Amino acid sequence: MAARPRSGPAPPAARPVRPRRLRFPPPGRGCPVGSALRCSLARLRFAPSGAVGAVGGVPWAGGGMRAVAAVLAAALAVGAALPRPGLLPHGPARGDARLRSGDDESSPGVPLRPAPRLYGRAARRLYVGTNGVISTQDFPRETQYVDDDFPTDFPVIAPFLADLDTSGDRGNIYYRQDNSPDVLDQAAGYIQAGFPRTASSFVPTNAFIATWEDVGAYQELSQDTGPSRKLNTFQAAMAYNNEDTYVIFFYPEGSLQFLGTRPKESYNVQLELPARVGFSWGDGDDPKRDGLFHSLASSEPALRNLERESNTGVPGVWVFHVGSVAPLEHVEPGAGPVRHASGSADYTRTLYSRANHYSHADHASTELPAQHGSETTHPDHGPRSPALQGIVPKGLPASLGQERSRRLHPDGDGSARQSYSANPSFYSSGHHGVGVEEDVHFNPDEGKVLNPYEVWLCHCVPKPFPLVPVFTYSAASRETCAQHHERCSPHAFCTDYATGICCHCRATYYGNGRQCLPEGAVHRLNGKVSGSLMVGQASIRFQDVDLHAYIVGSDGRAYTAISGVPQPAARALLPLLPIGGLFAWLFAPEEPGSENGFSITGAEFTQNLEVTFYPGEETVHITQTAEGLGADNYLSLKTRIQGQVPFLPENIAVHIAPYKELYHYSSSAVTSSAQREYVLMAGTANRTLSYRLRQNITFSGCPHTRLLARQRLSVARAFTLYDSQEHVLRYALAAHIGSAGDNAENSPVNPCHDSTHTCEATARCQPGTGMEYTCECAAGYRRDGRGCRDVDECAEGLSQCGPFTVCLNGPGSYRCECRSGYRPAEDGQGCVSLAPVSNPCEDGSHPCAPGDRARCLPRAGGRPACECLPGYTGDGINCSDVDECAENLCHPAAVCYNTPGSFSCRCHPGYEGDGFQCMQEPTERPHTMCERWRQSLLEHYGGSPRSDQYVPQCDMQGNFSPLQCHGDSGYCWCVDESGREIQGTLPQVVAPPSIWPSPRPDVSPPATGTFLLYAQGQQIGYLPLNGTRLQKEAAKTLLSLHGSIVVGIDYDCREKTIYWTDVAGRTISRASLEPGAEPETIINSGLISPEGLAVDHLRRAVFWTDSGLDKIERARLDGAERRVLFDTDLVNPRAIAVDPVRGNLYWTDWNREAPKIETSTVNGANRRVLVNKDIGLPNGLTFNPFSKLLCWADAGTKYLECTFPDGTGRRVIQNNLNYPFSITSYADHFYHTDWRRDGVIAIDKETGSFTDEYLPEQRSHLYGITAVYPYCPGGKTHHKTHPPLIV
């Protein structure tokens, strides 16, 4: 995939601020009885390095920021959520680079030196993406990962993986590598709190910090909707040294205002996919590690608790061990006390594999055993004392560290006791980790939990004194930076003046403060050009043709291309170099004391240009309007050209000599006038002409900025050309801007400014004093005279390739490959032999039951796991047969036969079916004349007639089809009821034509038998079943519906017709499954977002939900007799199901505030709520006519549940779904569409296990699904052509 443009490099770190003194109460002075805690930020001061003092009477020591970090962490330890200041320092003041605004952006690779260990490999670069992710490689397009579940196809650190968007400068994303002591000390404190035993001596040498600040979810905006005000802030930090790597996630209090994002393909179907938080190894060279991942949170309850809970004891802070020189098979979560809202501790760890991820055996979890009382046993660290020694982060006073984990419970005698609890957690089958779960219990007797802002720094005050606010703001009539700093660029600072504010770009950036660009970077400009010109005597008009400009800011080269201008006008515009000259002035390199145009006007201005040609005095007016910076910092420009220009014949070249242009400046305008000559060249003949130029540039500038009165733009080279083959008009200039003093004409120009430097292409020219300059080399290159040459790290021994590797040098870098017969080692640098490791499952040394009852599952470096096969029960070592017949799984009209590991069902005589569903065999009627004649001819032809032989065609009732044909010859005629030819219909052709009409190309009739139909955007798919197994190889597209978005789908078993809703066309349609059938729209008005749909084959009625109108309606199958059943107490109705036999209707409403499942009769009577507790987003709903169970799939709780029609007997079938949309049932299986997997998932009804999945080749979201039987299930049928609409 082609590389996308990248943001500029990170600017150098800002100058450190001198620390100030941190004053504390004198040692030993606590709060006397009758006093209260009072806290204030106003007294917070930094102490110099080495200072010694006390906090709460406890000695402390350390550098300035380490002390502050200690106070902060200790303050947070009382159980409140992490406040915004709890994030690690970030932003432009800390030297952060800012990711450019947009929906799917990524940073350049940030080199890490030294390279940390991550997932068993060396991470030499890190990339930061808009969508809440960090990776060691460049990101694919967001459609390939943003809506999918873990694992990803590339390495990922995901503090909040979702479809985020910072377009329009809504939020900032910062990143940097850091080795400052204050940051490293604060990170070390959190890591030691999470790993008190194994990381007690861990000292990081470097850190990488990425911060997503006030970022929003992707949103499709319209004239009626503005951007959402819900914004998220979170941070990820990687701290490491030469041996270990840790990652910390930060979620301040109130920072997660939204928990999911809406897929771009959802159209007007209201859905949100929860964010994913965790880690994924991605595809790698080691197949054993391919697809591994660790999930911390992927459901709304878990995401909601990220701010409240922790594995370090500090709510909102999560720490993980992700790399080590020692073997580290998976991510290790912190083992400190997990802070819940109720104060309980929790520890979970899980590891998954992509291969066979539906198997129970693919999950390994470590649970913290519950230990109540004064001692808690942790799985890795042994017993821990009541004081939780070792948990206190480095630099924290012990008493405050203990306060984080101590809860006081009043006993009967008035004394206090300590208790520590562990809440064990478990994982079920499926591939979602549940790292945190919501704990809504809180014991008010456990003591007051202080607000974070109340515990920054506490001192004693008399008890009656109330707490005072930390921050106060005073309102003023004038604009201030406190109120309007958002007007400034993220790369600018705001300054208050007596009459208002101004913005100024920070170092390494330039602009007017409202828009700032990185110095020396390449800039791009996009725009449209329209014109109305008289070229000689011809009138020419053009509208919105494309303009593109490319500016090399380091040496002042500006290239402009305008495509699509009609040829006579394009040639006539060749002398008008000022069209491209504007960009040379905007981005010209600046001599000392000078400013280019962009530094004054920014990206919002208007240029008016008047050009008068001589000798003909033709005049043309040009208006160029800059409309700000768009995506990728591209400047957007509109150009309008009107007037008269001289005609230039073909084969004429235009030459413009170097020139200088004087600009005059005021606070809101720039003016210039000049007389410019140009030379027309045709072969050896030259002619010199001229024009007068007057230009005026208006802008909104800062009134407090002092501008030079005059400046001179020096154009060293100018070039203009029209490419007649590509129809492109081109301008090119090289310029710089400097002083307009008297000696400016003769003052020397630095070679970097006029491109006379001798730096080679691999080096950048950096101006110095006077005429001096330097040529700087990029990483991986070394100075070689005035240029740079590649460093051969392999030849010079600079690579980090390990044993048994081959080092391969490349431009600016190198790579390590394993020698033949070796594979990458766990450390990612060396290689190890491919010699096979002994596998007990293969050599027969395992303890599992025989292979016909159990399977052996190898485990890396340990004892293999044993698992009983389906149909057996036990621990895998001892497995016994399950008697399925005792569970009454067969149809009542069937006999069950139990067999080892399985069973079978067989219908009673007189019934037909597969044993799970049995239908009484219809009474055989006598053969009709058509059928007898057909059978006679088939026997005459030996059972296989030729394509040109006649065989009577009979319909389903045995009558003659009205149209009869001679095989496939196309020789056809019409017949009456007795099969006689109707006079005049026999064609008068001897030989039939070779080409005849065929069925519609977008209709593919299905085969007989049971199959599934699913909706996938613009098509309806066909997936046959073999028993209950998915016949994936026979799947195909049944019906293509271009321009539609099919959501709800159901089947009329009597007429063999499918019905569907279309949210794009706002219609309800149907189509027969007969060959050549064409879709027919039955409802085409009064719909906004029709979603769920159900067909009653007995009453010949169709029911549907409309989440746009919040209605439930019904009509006949042809769309007649339409009426509204319900239009009140509905918020987001989605799925709907019908029980034709009993005449009941069921539907879901996934109102986020009060989701529910309701029921009524099919005519709208007896409406009542069936389920409204413990549900989240009930997307899918199905009613099984055989088991009489109502079942639903919930994308919020991740549960598949069933209940009886009266709401009793509720039970959970599966508790670890991904993101289900629609569900149907057949035999002993459920089948649901899933938006994470983009496929059809099969689930066993009894065991709840995932048994199969089908992923269509074309990846897009699947919507509705239904099962199609070869017969109508249950109830008596009506045989009238138009039966009454029975209710």
UniProtKB/TrEMBL annotation:
Q: Write out the GO cellular component annotations.
A: basement membrane; plasma membrane
Limits of the Nidogen G2 beta-barrel domain: 521-747
- The EGF-like domain is annotated at 748-789, 790-832, 837-880, 881-917
Start and end of every Thyroglobulin type-1 domain?
Answer: 927-995
Residues annotated as region Disordered?
1-27, 87-115, 370-428
GO molecular function: any one? Wnt receptor activity
| Comp. bias (Polar residues) | 416-428
PANTHER family according to UniProt: NIDOGEN 2, VITELLOGENIN RECEPTOR-LIKE PROTEIN-RELATED-RELATED
Could you identify this protein by its name?
Answer: Nidogen 2
Organism lineage string = Eukaryota, Metazoa, Chordata, Craniata, Vertebrata
Gene field: NID2
